[in-house]
């Protein structure tokens, strides 16, 4: 069979996404382009690989068998690319990484100069992203790695084809106006009567804060939903409320803000995820090393 890598990747992505439109969006193609390529797959193989079920498509038996082998081929191609890179004399090329705002403001400014000095031919390109879309972006090849914020109580299932490295535990602290008359170490219940500034509950930080309040039996009065830590800190300084921010988000505390410890602290896990088939890529290894060294420099709670 004379099938292209592009066709195999498209078929695998349709299998993961469930619709041609979603697969096209994930891969950066139009739905018609994906449909044409999958039609070419059926013409080449002589069998139907997809069938419509309502508004979605599902794989035929032949399609499932082809996807199984396609994923093996795609993984082996990436392993071959890693092998080629290993025999080069320098770490070079582009590395695309999905990041979060708190990573961009803390670890990245330390890691990028390290990489530039050690590997000047390597270019790191970043995209800001959230966990679920990043998993799909990694699977489709849009990014080579991404940072995942996770929680011990409900860890994200990344699947067997991906590798997870824990970078640090990111502990939360309360941020209050300097004139706040509470103690230096507080319980979450001490914030029950305060106006809260927090990330929306569908965002990673918001989920973590929401779960912490649930565990403490507290229903917070959230008056401002904002997912940018500098904005939260500025609002706290302005007396608009109090917040809970992880350590990576409170690197630059403005005047008017006081950082308060929690009697029963909670943390989120900061992980770096990449495809297992790319684990031996020198670029991946160099990026992991630079991030880990940067986390150590910041004095974060490292595994």
**CATH fold-level name of the largest domain:** D-Maltodextrin-Binding Protein, domain 2
Q: Which descriptor suits the 3D outline? A: globular
Low-confidence stretches: none
Total number of strands: 12
- Overall structural class, as computed from helix and strand content, comes to alpha/beta
Outline the secondary-structure elements.
Elements: H1 5-17, H2 20-27, H3 31-45, E1 50-53, E2 56-59, H4 61-86, E3 93-99, H5 101-104, H6 108-118, E4 122-128, H7 131-140, E5 145-150, E6 162-177, E7 185-186, E8 195-198, H8 204-215, E9 221-225, H9 229-237, E10 242-246, E11 257-262, E12 267-275, H10 282-298
Parallel strand pairs: 3-4, 3-5, 7-11, 8-9, 8-10
Antiparallel strand pairs: 1-2, 5-12, 6-10, 6-11, 6-12
Please describe what this structure looks like.
- α1 packs across α2 and α2 crosses α3.
- The protein is of the alpha/beta class and 303 residues long.
- It starts with a helix and ends in a 5-residue tail after the last helix.
- The strands form two sheets. Strands 3, 4, 5, 6, 7, 8, 9, 10, 11 and 12 form a ten-stranded mixed sheet that branches. The protein has a two-stranded antiparallel sheet with strand order 1-2.
- The protein is globular.
- The protein has two domains: 81 residues, Arc Repressor Mutant, subunit A; 214 residues, 3-Layer(aba) Sandwich (D-Maltodextrin-Binding Protein, domain 2).
Short description:
This protein has 303 residues and is of the alpha/beta class. The chain contains 10 helices and 12 strands.
């Amino acid at each position: 069979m004379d099938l292209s890598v592009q066709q195999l990747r498209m078929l695998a992505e349709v299998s993961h996404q469930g619709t041609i439109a979603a697969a096209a969006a994930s891969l950066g193609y139009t739905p018609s382009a994906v449909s044409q390529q999958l039609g070419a797959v059926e013409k080449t193989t002589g069998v139907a690989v997809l069938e419509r079920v309502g508004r979605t498509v599902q794989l035929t038996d032949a399609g499932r068998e082809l996807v199984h082998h396609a994923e093996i081929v795609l993984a082996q191609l990436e392993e071959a690319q890693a092998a080629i890179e290993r025999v080069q004399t320098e770490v070079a090329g582009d590395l695309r990484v999905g990041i979060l705002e708190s990573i961009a403001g803390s670890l990245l400014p330390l890691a990028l100069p390290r990489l530039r000095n050690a590997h000047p031919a390597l270019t790191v390109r970043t995209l800001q992203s959230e966990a679920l879309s990043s998993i799909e972006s990694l699977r489709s090849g849009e990014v080579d790695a991404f940072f995942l914020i996770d929680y011990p109580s409900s860890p994200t299932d990344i699947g067997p084809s991906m590798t997870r490295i824990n970078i640090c535990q990111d502990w939360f602290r309360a941020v209050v106006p300097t004139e706040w008359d509470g103690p230096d170490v507080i319980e979450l219940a001490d914030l029950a009567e305060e106006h809260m500034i927090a990330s929306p509950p569908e965002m990673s930080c918001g989920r973590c804060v929401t779960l912490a309040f649930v565990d403490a039996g507290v229903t917070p009065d959230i008056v401002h939903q904002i997912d940018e830590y500098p904005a939260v800190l500025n609002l706290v300084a302005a007396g608009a409320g109090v917040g809970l921010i992880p350590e990576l988000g409170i690197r630059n505390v403005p005047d008017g803000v006081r950082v308060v410890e929690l009697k029963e602290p909670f943390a989120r896990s900061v992980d770096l995820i990449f495809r297992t088939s790319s684990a031996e890529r020198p670029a991946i290894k160099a990026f992991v090393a630079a991030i880990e060294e940067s986390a150590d420099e910041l004095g974060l709670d490292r595994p």
